[in-house]
Amino acid sequence: MALTAQQRRRRALYMTSQQPADTDDEQAQAAPTGRRVQPRAPNSPQTSEWVTRELQALLLEDGVDVIAQHVVGVLQGLANRQKQSRCKGPGTSPVYGPQPAFLAGIMQAVQGFLDEHAAAFARQLWSFLESGLSISAHDALVFGADSTASAESDDEQEQDPEAAGDSS
What we know:
By secondary structure, this protein is an all-alpha fold.
């Protein structure tokens, strides 16, 4: 499988064990008015897209749909549990509940597929969901706006490599 520039960058994040930016900092940047950003819902198309991209980058496979559906199903279960419990407090998502329970649930769901990267995947997923940001905005926050723009440019060139050479 040929990885896109975005997938290569995301894979490098896991391989180097880099920690995502603190969600409180993300929230402050995403909502400068001081309002808390609503976390991304499990049924959001961007949630599925993000999960699929991450799994492809980690597993080096295109066909990760079943695993991605499994992860989204676990997210839906966590969201349903949080609706019933209405648990609040520091480190608690209004959508997914307490962070430790979220991380444990996701790690358990993906451990057999991602092995040593399960914990990092769970932390990255928490960071993305809690930010409430789009995929590109979250990538810009994690990697910086310049590297996100260059990765998107690299992806466009990879998708149509002959277009650059056909200008004659």
